[in-house]
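Example A, followed by Example B.
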Amino acid sequence: MKKIIEGVVIFIFERVPVLNFLNGNKRLIGNVLMIIGAGLEGLRSAYPGMALLPDVVAYYSIVVGAITRVVGDMHAQAKDNKFGSL
């Protein structure tokens, strides 16, 4: 099962031209999105009377950042296993 998931992740991020530009940047993008989400949530909780942001924007940013970070880690691990076995 692990080989199938690794194969799918490698195929998606190395063979699909639209997602190929994300190679090497998924972890960075995920970390930046999580930091932005945490900052937005901090602003929202610091100024509750001001309708700066809807409640869900910060949470979506944190969730999308975490998912992007996990996918980046999975892809890096799959590449290490693929190239480490040569």
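Example B, a separate protein, is given below in the same form.
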Amino acid sequence: MIKTEDQAIQFLTTLQYLYPLFHPDDDPMDVVNDNGYREFNDEQCEYLSKRLDEVYNILSDPCGVVYNQIRPKMEMWSFCYNNKNK
């Protein structure tokens, strides 16, 4: 269970590293791989949905946290943020 802001940010950070294209507004049931198969099984979807509900109860803008705090620190997104001011 996610109860603090730090836990919410850590959850989003871990989720971004494991599934970098997952957006906090996404429904886990709708996330599919390149072959069109669901990325998460029913149990995982239920878990993710519950945790994301907790995150949204704690953070006013989880998407902003992902875009402004988490992704700028991730190497795979550095091309987006390094070229932003050019």
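On Example B: The two ends are 41 Å apart (CA to CA).
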